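Troubleshooting log. The previous structure file for this entry was overwritten by mistake, so regenerating from the original sequence record. Sequence copied from the archived sheet and checked twice against the printout by T.R.
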Amino acid sequence: MKKKIIIISSSRADYGILNPLIQKMKKSCNLKTIITGSHLSNFYGNTSEEIKKDHIKINYEVRTLNKLNDEIGISKTISKTIEKITLVLLKEKPDLIVILGDRYEIFACAVSAVINKIPIAHLHGGERTEGVFDEYIRHAITKMSHLHFAATDEYRNRIIQLGEQPNRVFNVGGLGVDNLKKSNLLVKKD
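Regenerated output below.
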């Protein structure tokens, strides 16, 4: 039986990196997708339409984004995301969730997975964003995750310095590079 894996995307930024992975994984496992966050906001361009144009089935649209982008609004988004993602995870009972980066909506998804004893594969951990609370969130997600897919040896080493088991931390390179293969780049003359 194929493993059930859920990939969660919360914004155009992580979706652009996740797209090639989703395209490959949907052929090899029982893949479900959840979108949340700015994907479902008209203010941020309703990027869920881009996902549909890429022929990716969206299994769950989890609306949690608070209109306020201050401390209270972000806290409410995190709280609502934990609540709603938990309901989906309890229903689906995945073998693994795949998340990327450091968005607070993704942090909430990780919290929900940990509470429900669902392993997490975290992409692009170990990176640095000094002076921004994204770094705290990224490192917290790293500590909640079971498998780590870093973009460089430096990031892999940082994840190991955070106390993660080296045999669960892999340098796979930057997943966004796959998008370059699909790009129509200008020739040097142009």
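The longest helix spans residues 71-92. Archived copy saved in two places this time.
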